[in-house]
Amino acid sequence: MGEVSGAGGFPRLAGVSGPGVLRRVGEGLRAYRLIAGMWIRSTLAYRASFALTVFGNLLVTGLDFVAILLMFSQVDSLGGWSLPEVALLYGLSATAFGTADLVIGSMDTLGVRIRDGSFDTLLVRPAPVLAQVAADRFALRRLGRITQGSLVLGWALTAVDVDWSGPKALLVPVMLAGGAAIFGAVFVAGASFQFVAQDAAEVQNAFTYGGTTLLQYPPSVFGRDLVRGVTFLVPLSFVNWLPASFLLGRPLPLGLPWWAAFATPLVAAACWVPAGLAWRAGLRSYRSTGS
User: Fold this and answer.
1) Which Pfam families does its entry note (predicted)?
2) Cα(203)–Cα(201) distance, rounded to whole angstroms?
3) How far apart are CA 208 and CA 205, in angstroms?
4) How far is 204 from 207, CA to CA, in rounded Å?
5) What would the 3-class secondary structure string for the chain be?
6) Is residue 4 assigned to a domain?
7) Distance, CA of 127 to CA of 125 (rounded, Å)
8) Residue 44 forms part of a structural domain
9) Has residue 111 been placed in a domain?
10) Which range has the top average pLDDT, 40-54, 115-129, 144-158?
11) Model's pTM, two decimal places?
12) Residues 6 or more apart whose Cβ sits within 8 Å of residue 41
């Protein structure tokens, strides 16, 4: 089987084969591990600075939850949801997003690389470009967001009134892993758009950082059209709104059936298909700055 030129100047096999895909995935994971490891070692060389940065990140991200606490100092419920229930939404959203932000959050810097021409250096390296971009400047300080979200989530799980069962207990890690995967797909799709716009970091952030802020509040405080969009267009509601509603014994938004609460992994996989295609199309359309 012959070779033809692939996106980014890399050779690829003519035709798609299972072993070839697995090999590329393995290469990507290895490249990601090496690049991220380099940035982690650089960060930990100054441990005091790292600890202060993580602590500061934890405090800054915690201001979002302080705003929720201030709201509940004036009201007993928000859209019919109690403080522990809203804290559950907050903890799930912040932890899932924090995980995606840690692993692949550097994708939002792609526009800068495209504009200054430094993206060209990634194309000549013998490693998948997506892995290089995702691991570039791996920011271990983002553990602060995950830690803060996990603390709120831990308190919320002990404070909410839930009739726990096996499926409900399994739903919590499914929400966290699936939610992180959904946010990761949004990061990749947003980065793909930057091949066209080149200065679209804020557009991407509207769906990533803006999305996690949206999910920290109950769906009942938003208009029905917005809830439809967050469910069927950019399916962020599968991160926490739908599964958390089932967990709390509440009707699912938009009258969806109960089994939709368990669809988060399937939705995450479905999100990665167009995100991957968009990334491939963007990479193929890239033209160097020439500088």
Assistant:
1) ABC2_membrane_6
2) 5
3) 5
4) 6
5) CCEEECHHHCEEECCCCHHHHHHHHHHHHHHHHHHHHHHHHHHHCCHHHHHHHHHHHHHHHHHHHHHHHHHHCCCCCECCECHHHHHHHHHHHHHHHHHHHHHHHHHHHHHHHHHHCCHHHHHCCCCCHHHHHHHCCCCHHHHHHHHHHHHHHHHHHHHCCCCCCHHHHHHHHHHHHHHHHHHHHHHHHHHHHHHHHCCCHHHHHHHHHHHHHHHCCCHHHCCHHHHHHHHHHCCHHHCCHHHHHHHCCCCCHHHCCHHHHHCHHHHHHHHHHHHHHHHHHHHHHCCCCCC
6) no
7) 6
8) yes
9) yes
10) 144-158
11) 0.88
12) none
Q: Is 10's pLDDT higher than 60?
A: no
Q: Is the distance from CB of 150 to CB of 61 less than 8 angstroms? A: no
The pair of three-digit structure tokens given for residue 55, joined into one six-digit string: 């602590």
Query: What is d(CA 85, CA 219) in angstroms, rounded to the nearest whole number?
Result: 12
- pLDDT at site 219: 95
Amino acid present at 109 = T
For residue 236, the one-letter residue type is: L
Question: Distances from the Cα of 275 to the Cαs of 88, 144, 226, 279, in angstroms?
Answer: 28, 27, 22, 6
Token digits for 59? 């405090």
Using alpha carbons, select from 201, 198, 195 the residue that is nearest to residue 285: 195
In terms of Cβ atoms closer than 10 Å to its own Cβ (0-12, 13-18, 19+), residue 139 is middle
Q: How many domains does the chain have?
A: 1
Mean pLDDT, the chain, integer: 88
140 with 98: CB under 8 angstroms? Answer: no
Q: Which domain holds residue 181?
A: 17-285
Is residue 88 a contact partner of residue 174, using CB atoms and an 8 Å limit?
Answer: no
Distance CA 53, CA 143 (A): 10
